[in-house]
Each structure stands twice: as C-alpha cells, then as structure tokens.
C-alpha cells in the first residue's frame, strides 16, 4: 500500500506537534475517532498538539496508527528533542534489524553468520540434524529472538525451537542474546513430546518441571522462587492463571526463552483471563516464540495477541483489532498486503508440500446398520429433521446441535442414548438438549439392544488384519463411551489396546507416575517401541489430536466416527502423517460410514473442508480460515437437510 502524503511532527515541551498532515486527520472520520479514544490532544488551528502521557514510544505508536489511517508517512521536523531523536534512531535500527530478519526468512542469510550457526548446532545439538527448511527456521528464530513459526503440523517445529535455543543458550553469558532456560506453555498433551524431543536432540534425558495440577500451589511457588531450574519448565495455559505472579518473578530472575505452543489458544482479545495472563509474561521474557499451524482460524484479528506477545513494546502489526476484523471480511482489502509485509520479518511458515512427505491413501467403508439400529436411527432422524430450521436463535442452535449429536451417536452405537448430553459434549460442541428431546430419547431407549455395533466389528476386523501383518493402528472415536466400549470389545477378541482421551492422566514432574503404564506419555512411549505389548491405540480427537507423534511406528488409522470439526479431523490425521516418513511408507486411513445416515453428510463435508483448508494452507502466507473450520454451521445444516431429503425421496 503506497502512502500519498506526509505527517510531519516536531517537539514542544512534553508534547508532540503535528503540522503537515493535521488537516488530513481532521477530515478522516476514523482518524479523528481513534485520536479522541487514545490520545490527549489540543486542536490549535494550524497544528494539533499531542501530550506525551506515558512515554514517547506509546504516544508515537498511536501517531503511527493515525498516519496509517490518513495514508501518510511520518516525517520528523528539525525541531525535535533528544527523546524524539532517540526514538527515531531506535526506529531506524529496528527497520534495519527487520530487514535482516526478512532476508533470512527469504533464504538470503549472511553466509558467514549462518555457517557459524550451523557449526554451533553440530556441536551443541549433536543428536539431531535439521533439514534445510528447519535449519533456516531455527536460524531465523535465533536471530530475531522474538518470532512466530506458523508451519503446518508435522513440520518439526519442536526441533526448530530446540535448534534456536541450543544456539542462544551456548552464547557467552554476557551476550545480550544469551538465554539460560526455556519455559514452554502448551496443552497437556504437548508435555511428553517436548521432553522426548529434548532427549532426541541433545542426547541426554532432561530434567523437567511440570507446573500443573499434580503440584500444590506452594510447591510451584517454591520452584519458581528457587535459585535453580530444570532443563525444561512446562505449564499449561490454564495453569498460568494461578501462578502468573510467581512465573513473572521467575522470568525476572532468569534469561528465559518463553515458548507458546499451540498459541492460537491465546487469540482472545476480548478480556479472556487465560489470554490476558499469558500476555503479561511477555515483558519479562528474554526471548519469545509463538508456535501454531493455525494462526488466524477466525480472521486477522487472531494475529493481534500473537505479535503483541513477541513484541510487547512495539506495534509491528500497526493495525488495531477493529481494523483487523474489518480486513478479514474482504479478500480485496489492500491493507492485507501491507499487514503481511509488516509482519513478514517475524514469522516463517513451512507448508506441507515443502516437506516431501509420501502421499497418504484412504478407504471409505460403508457399514450396514443392524435392523434394530436402523429402526432407532430412522425414528429419531424423522422426528428431528421435521423440527430443524436453518434460521434459529442462538439457544435453538444449541438445541439443533444436540439433535445432530444424537444422530451421530446412534449412527455408531445406540447404547449412547442411555447417557445424558452435557453442556459441552465429547466432540467439543456447545449444546443444549431440550426437555422434549430428552423425553423422546427416554422413550426410545427401551428399544436399544446390547448387540455389538457393526462398526465395532468392522473396525476390529481391520485392526486384527493390521496387527497380524506386524503393523500398528490408531482407532479414532468422537465419543468417550465408544472408546471404552471398543476397548472392551477388542479385549474380548484378544487384541490388546490402550486408551488416550481426556481422562488419561499426564505424568507428574516428581516421577511419582514413573511406574504407571497408563499415563499419556508412557502409552505413547511404549506404542512407539518395537517390542510394545499392544499395537492398537484408541483415541479421542477432541482431547489428543494435538502434539502427539505416532508416525515413526504407526501408519494406519481407523475412524469409527467423525464430527463436522475439520480442525480436529485434520490434526488427528497428522499424528501419523508427518515429516520423517520414508518414501516407501504407505499411510492409510479407513473411514467407517453407516449407510443412509448423517455419517455420509459428515464424510462429504469433511472432504470439502479439508480440500478448502489445504488450498488455503498452500496458497496463503497467513491462512485465513474464516468459517471453513466451523463445526455445525449453516453450511453443515444445509448439507444435513439436503441429504435427508435425498434419502427420503428414495424410500
């Protein structure tokens, strides 16, 4: 976006004077509104006088926004004081630094410095050899110190972080970029992979401190106020709320690299306590890293917290949240190119096509329901479909989602009708079952038999063939009761398995769970061993679709059931289809679909969403998903109604 004018500023006491460009501000409605909301100023006719209320940096950041509104470049007049001169010098240095970071991102690093970085990793991270794009990403992260990595799942972001950390950690202690510890904030499922990857990168078992629910508040405080620290300090976004002050003290005493894993969890810019608590940590970190494969799932406004975390004292975005929201609604908005250009020096994105992963295959398997299951499904579907409208109030939309979930349950296992729906179900949907629907389901339950669902039988048949051939398989199910029931059925057939879902505990830092073979980490560790006592994992994508890696030993996945949630589906697929697979490996997915049910609609909608997501991920520097990821949205509703009408016509 080319600027067309100049906004000239001068100093006058504790104020900034705007002369040239003042009229443009007066004529621009958005600029005037922004100035009234964020600055203390006086309109003096031939100029606008802005009082510096906090410091020059804060005030100038607001003036830069004004310049953006009126499409002007900022020019410094001759009459600026020393403080403003320092600001101009720092701005110039930051522009030079940003250009160097951009050059590295664009694969034009300074050869000698890049070589020194590679030599440092050979010496300090001897057990892991990064591939070309990983090495470039790690160097970019180490140079910038504050950076985002938006690479797709499976690109090896963890190794990239450890590469940057290895370099920064081994700089001389008096080097401004030196860091002496690493703090990782992420979902519970990410803890084990970070610990495992540390050993695989550095060749030693790390000391690890997990600041989560297994520790008392006092124990966490004692650690964070102590003189020493573990190799890795791990905590969850939810846990930060209760330990924020102690963690701020810890960061003030150490030169820590703070890593936000699955950082899209802090995108809330509307006062969410979890996001706000995390953002407060930024000012005390020596190095800040943001990791997510989906940086803008809802719109460009999701970028706001991510870039304000890595640069808390600089407005690298130069756009506020309302502007970013507005930009998200028009693909032709010329400000989008300017936004990407502004943030380009501080993020790297590796696409799936860059990884040269051998292609995966899939098989859609139609499963005939039993007569009793078919009768129950048809009775519920006929009643519910007659009551569904595309245009509903927010509450009735929750009721509608509850109806769809009941159909999903019966399409796999009618026994699930015996359980009440909670406000947030296993598939992560915000739902509400009406009293009328509950009464109807209660009347239907008497017809539910104890027969093994045909989907279970088919899934077990496929798993049995895979295990007999020496392979391993992950069986994905949306509903917890189906995971538990499938585990029981596999045991009856002599097939050993383990369950990974929300109730599966994580390991404690003190080693008290070391002998517990049923923690998430121990299950994944054993599954990835050649001599594993089980070759089947049953998992729930809502709980464990992120962070775990199973691709080294497992190349098969069976989906007993799926929801409309494309994000969970794609993330679950990436558990076994990631960088590092040998060219001759065939990764295969089996999708079980109950005939003439909502399963068929889900299968088609997920295929459409996945194709759309892949197109976005491959073509856009910042993937903007908007409503592509929406589960149970209006497009899903229309597809359900359309498919139901088509089935009704066949009868």
UniProtKB/TrEMBL annotation:
Residues 461-628 form the Helicase C-terminal domain. SUPFAM superfamilies: P-loop containing nucleoside triphosphate hydrolases. Pfam families: Helicase_C, SNF2-rel_dom. InterPro entries: Helicase_ATP-bd, Helicase_C-like, P-loop_NTPase, SNF2-like_sf, SNF2/RAD54-like_C, SNF2_N. Keywords: ATP-binding, Helicase, Hydrolase, Nucleotide-binding. One of its GO terms (molecular function) is helicase activity. Residues 217-313 form the Helicase ATP-binding domain. PROSITE patterns: HELICASE_ATP_BIND_1, HELICASE_CTER. SMART domains: DEXDc, HELICc. Signal peptide: none annotated. It comes from the Bacteria. This is Helicase-like protein.
